[in-house]
């Protein structure tokens, strides 16, 4: 089996889709699948030295990006690079990770149309609470999106709630199957303070308030992540210490919230390297993802917390995969999105119920092993490959 993956960005670019793709391609390679990968070069990404580590890929290429339109990279050479990769690698299956405007070039490619397509639907482009600019641009994007879905032989959605709520997928449910995102557990193995500081001039981030419930949030500091609600809730709760790791355009606003309301129990520590993040996850009591809308399509960071044996606290966003990833009352708890009072009440209760939090963490690791390990996820994806190839050859 030979599979060409078309993605938006790739490691070391930090993002849920990119981390998943890295783990998936490694796992499929270990199962004997020959793979190539074509992505965009992320703005400011120096990749030449790092790309040498992708020995599990037969071919890999990043196409230079000259600009970015909204969230879409503009890469004039992507079509030519795709044609070259199709001709030289000669895949049996084309695996398109969406959303990605450059994947639409496959619609014009004769080589691409000769082989089956698997579309991996990571998220919709628009929906309740999402970017206004995207809503204005979506009418121009939708015809290409729907043409791609019509041509696809199979579509992979990442959770039942997201599949059921996606307007884009509504007409194509007969060709959709649900396979969750997964990860390789070794990717979240903790490293001690010495190994983190050896790679950086900065001191490692440490928890500072002994005896308090240690709550961790990780992610891009964007409005949809809901970290402002989490800061207000942690400030109102007692016996809670909160660390939020990540950077983004909302950091100045969030820092003002911390200064005005949270005292010394809440800190924004900025972006951290993988080793520092893994250590923070290993040392926390509770992982919190307080996102406020369906821009949080799945919540891969919740799975990372599960792999580390940590309980999760997330939000009941209608149509988001978070509602399915977290088993409420077993592996974690759910609260209404954007409701700081309900979130504070939950944090207060969990600060008094440490044994309950620890038990949910143990069940989380069991759920991870049963459902979200990348090797099991990869085998399900490979089953889709085999099915579309069989249909192609028998037809």
Description:
Helix content is 41%, strand content 18%. The chain has 395 residues and is of the alpha/beta class. The chain folds into two domains: 2-184 and 373-394, Rossmann fold; 186-372, Glycogen Phosphorylase B (Rossmann fold), CATH 3.40.50.2000. Strand 6 (93-98), helix 3 and strand 7 form a beta-alpha-beta unit. Helix 7 packs parallel to helix 8, helix 7 (227-236) packs across helix 12 and helix 10 packs across helix 13 (354-372). The chain is globular. The two termini are 18 Å apart.
Quick gist of this model?
This protein has 14 helices and 15 strands. The protein is an alpha/beta fold and 395 residues long.
Distance between the termini: 18 Å
Mean pLDDT: 91
The CATH homologous superfamily of the largest domain is named Glycogen Phosphorylase B
How many beta-strand runs?
15
Order of helices and strands: EHEEEEHEHEHEHEHEHEHEHEHEHEHHH
Tally of helical runs: 14
Strand order of the largest sheet: 3-2-1-6-7-8-9
- Beta-strand percentage range: 15-25%
Biggest sheet details: 7 strands, parallel
Number of spatially distinct domains: 2
Keywords:
seven-stranded parallel sheet; 14 helices; 395 residues; six-stranded parallel sheet; Rossmann fold; 18% strand
